[in-house]
Amino acid sequence: MRVFVTGASGGIGSAVVPELLAAGHEVLGLARSDTAARAVAAAGATVLRGDLNSPESLRAGAAETDGVIHLAFGHDFADFGKMVAEEGRAIETFGAVLKGSDKPLVIASGTPAVPGRASTEQDPAPADGPVGGRGRNAQTVLDLAGNGVRSAVVRLPRSVHAQGEGYGFASVLIAAARRTGVSGYVGDGSQRWPAVHRLDAARLFRLALEQAAPGTVVHAVADEGDTMRAIADVIGRQLGLPTQAVPAETFGPFLGNVFAIDQPASSALTQERFGWQPTGPSLLEDLEAGNYPD
Length: 294
Description:
The chain is built from eleven helices and 13 strands. By secondary structure, it is α/β, with parallel strands linked by helices.
């Protein structure tokens, strides 16, 4: 299969591309800069220059391939609405190109928070609240199943991690600790975050591309929920800093609110349906190893 991958040089895409190539697929990777283009080419993929604000490049990538994995998403959490709108326009473009083709469209989204328990693949994505926009975008993708698109949503946990490279939202805690001199957590720190090693997540994106039925939701979750306090404790120990509660605003007006929510998640149904078994180190194990990037 020839697969179009957006975000091909990003933290997750840079693991998904070699996973696809190793499985015998060809990859056309979207690159918005010379640096990204070099990284995509070095991984063994063909480069298509463009970005999420270039619908012509998105249409070309989808039309020239046998399926799409959409991973690109901005990191400007000060303007989360802008990032959600960009994602929404990209999904509309892909949906128009792929309509009636039975080709796969797999996108990344986030696991939802369900009060009092771990969320599952059967729980709907939130349509309101701080991350409601992404939930609505994910539902748009699932609805494409009724238009002849083999659509699937891979819900990612708060921390997609790899030792010495990146730790998802835990990287925000590391940056804040270095900036403030305190390894902080919000509230009493008992709120739980799910996590997955990025190589395990990459393997699940491939499986979803190859096997998922139209309108499928999968959870790329290895650790159902580490407490924010436990994560902060490890970071503080590795950086030689005290661990204590800090105001939610320490992490910004958007992320501070998200960080305060208890949001464990399960992947039991995903593991049963796809035979996917996470094998990588846990988030806490990767954090305990230190060697945090700048």
